[in-house]
Amino acid sequence: MTESRNPITVFIADDQAMVRQGFGALLAAQTDISVLGDAPDGRVAVAEVARLRPDVVLMDVRMPEMNGLDAARLILSDTREPRSRVLMLTTFDLDDYVYEALGMGASGFLLKDAPAEELVRAVRVVAQGEALLAPTVTRRLIADVTRRRQPRRGRDHALDVLTPREVEVLELIAHGLSNTEIAERLFVAEQTVKTHVGKVLGKLHLRDRAQAVVIAYESGLVTPR
């Protein structure tokens, strides 16, 4: 459960009315989540998100008029505050768009047939900025996509700006651990982990944890299992 006093605001973009209605009803039933609206295509979604400024956007990958990837790119390029986070929805567990979407700042992927509790948890996690690896499927998606990319030899020097502890934190982020789990693994306070995460993002000029995971795989720090 999020600690925020205000409800998490959500917008749903999907070309299937049943998906929009089903997800909307499920999320609206949560006491800490408020559904602001929905859209049947990417073009309408971009306009409505710009107007409503939801905390989290559930974005289907494949939609008419404008696909979810292009819509997410426009939403994520909007620098006004508050900034919406995008959680991509897909019916495929190996979507060709996964890597590109994560690289441009999407907060993760969720399969449409995921259990109801996983959808709710994913929205809460994304809203808190713990994005990307909360749904366990995302770890597999990243691993499968990066496996198809040409591996690098050795670790990228771009990570040399990080301290050994920050590198360790980045590696644990890439393996899907939350701040609480990292704190337990390193025997430090959760606030200390948050500080390390902030420094990692700042030094590497990254927007969020999603991009941190991409960098970890691209740099060779973490390799698919």
Summary tags:
about 220 residues; alpha/beta; 10 helices
Structural class: alpha/beta
Largest sheet: 5 strands, parallel
**Helix content, binned percent:** 40-55%
Number of helices: 10
Low-confidence stretches: none
Tertiary shape: globular
Quote the average pLDDT: 82
Annotation, overall tally of beta strands: 5
How much of the polypeptide forms β-strand, as a percent range? 5-15%
For this entry, what is the oligomeric state of its chains? single chain
Termini distance? 31 Å
Question: What's the Cα radius of gyration?
Answer: 17 Å
The main sheet orders its strands as: 2-1-3-4-5
Write the H/E string, N to C: EHEHEHEHEHHHHHH
Summarize the SSE layout with pairings.
Elements: E1 8-13, H1 17-28, E2 33-39, H2 42-52, E3 56-60, H3 68-76, E4 85-90, H4 98-103, E5 109-111, H5 116-127, H6 137-147, H7 164-174, H8 179-186, H9 190-203, H10 209-218
Parallel strand pairs: 1-2, 1-3, 3-4, 4-5
Helix pairs in contact: 2-3, 7-9, 7-10, 8-9
3D structure, described in words:
It is a single chain. This protein is an alpha/beta fold and 225 residues long. The protein is 46% helix and 12% strand. It is built from ten helices and five strands. The protein has helices spanning 17-28, 42-52, 68-76, 98-103, 116-127, 137-147, 164-174, 179-186, 190-203, 209-218, and strands at 8-13, 33-39, 56-60, 85-90, 109-111. Strands 2-1-3-4-5 form a five-stranded parallel sheet, sandwiched between helices. Strand 1, helix 1 (17-28) and strand 2 (33-39) form a beta-alpha-beta unit. The radius of gyration is 17 Å and the shape is globular. The mean pLDDT is 82.
